[in-house]
Amino acid sequence: MDESYIPIRLKQLRTKKGISATEMSLLMGQTDNYISDIESKYTTPSMEHVLLICEFFGISPGEFFDEENANPLLLHKLISELTPLNDQDFDNLFNLLLEGQKKLKN
Fold first, then answer.
1. Exposure string over 43-79, b if 16+ CB within 10 A, otherwise e
2. Global pTM?
3. CA 69 to chain CA centroid, nearest Å
4. Chain-centroid distance, C-alpha 76
């Protein structure tokens, strides 16, 4: 992970959420160009602001910095929906997923 990770990840998540840099900046209580400045590498957010960005997206810092996870917003939402399932429902859903993957491969 290098210094361009935060700007790239921020833009990726913001774009997936469908929000402009200006709108996100203002919703976070910052100047209208704050997010744009981070994405353009004009400024580096403090750790406090990284945490606020994570809070804005509703993800943990671990999810933000997980380079393997291309869509932490959707994965976080999916896990939230799966958590209350009982064992039988979870098994049924998992088996359905496996069947769907087999059909896609064929």
1. eebeeebbeebbebbebeeebbbeeeeeebbeeeeee
2. 0.76
3. 8
4. 8
The rounded distance, in Å, linking the Cα atoms of 20 and 14 is 7
18, 19, 37, 81, 103 from 15: Cα distances, Å: 5, 6, 16, 23, 31
pLDDT in tens, the chain (106 residues): 788 999 999 999 999 999 999 999 999 999 999 999 999 999 999 999 999 999 999 999 999 999 888 888 888 888 888 888 899 988 888 888 888 888 888 7
Encoded tokens for 74: 């959707």
What SS3 class is residue 75? helix
